[in-house]
Known about the structure:
The chain is α/β, with parallel strands linked by helices. It folds into two domains: 5-16 and 90-222, Rossmann fold (3-Layer(aba) Sandwich), CATH 3.40.50.1000; 20-88, Orthogonal Bundle (DNA polymerase, domain 1). 46% of the residues lie in helices and 13% in strands. The chain is built from ten helices and eight strands. It has a six-stranded parallel sheet. Strands 2-3 form a two-stranded antiparallel ribbon. The chain is globular and about 50 Å long. One of its GO terms (cellular component) is cytosol. One of its GO terms (biological process) is DNA repair. This is Phosphonatase-like hydrolase. InterPro entries: HAD-like_hydrolase_sf, HAD-like_sf, HAD_sf, PhnX-like.
Amino acid sequence: MNVELVVLDMAGTTVRDDGAVEAAFSAALEAVGVPADSPEREDVDAYVRDTMGQSKIEVFRALFPAEGVAEKANRVFESAFASRAIEVAEPLPGAEEAIDKLRAQGRRVCLSTGFSARTRDALLARLGWTELADLVVCPADAGGRGRPFPDMVLTAVLRLGITDVRAVAVAGDTGFDMLTGRRAGASVAAGVLTGAHDEATLRAHGATHVLGSVAELPGVLER
C-alpha cells in the first residue's frame, strides 16, 4: 500500500536535544523529593529510560500516584526542558532533507511529540520548523493521551484526510513510538538508532524496519 502519511517523532528522531530531556527529568525528580543520591533514584531513572517516548505526564503519574505530585513534576519538567532546548536543540543530520524528500514524494508529514503545546511551539520556533511539516501534534491535540496510545497518529489521519490507516508510516527512536504506530494500524513502524532505544527494544515493540537515522526513510518508502 502506498504510504500517504509519515508521522515522525521529534526528540531523538528528527531533533538532537543534547541531553535536555534527561536534564529536565532530573530537575523534575529533584523538585518532588527524589534527588540524585536518594535510595530510590536508580529505579526511578531506569523507569524513565525504559519509558522514553511515552507522554511525560503519564510517566510521572505512574511514578507518583499521590495527588498533585505528578502534575508538579510535569510542570518542572516542561519548564526545564523548554529553557534548555531553546539553547541547544538542533535538527539531527539529514532530518530536514528527509522531510523535504517525503513531501516531494507526495506524502504528508506530521511531526509528533509527547511535550506540551507550549514546549512544542518553543521547540519549533527554535528550529525554524513552523512551516516544515503539514501538521505538528502533541497529546493536547489528541484529547490528552500521548504514546503509547494511537491517538496522535489517528488525529493526524483525520486532520489530513488519509484514506486508510494502513497508508501510514511511523518513525521514532523508542519502543513506544513503535507500539503507537502498530496500535494505530500503520503498515510501517520504522525505528531509528539516533535516540533512546536500541534495535532489540525497537524490534520487541513492533518495528518493521530499523534504520540508522531518519535520513534513510525516504529511500525505504520509495523502494
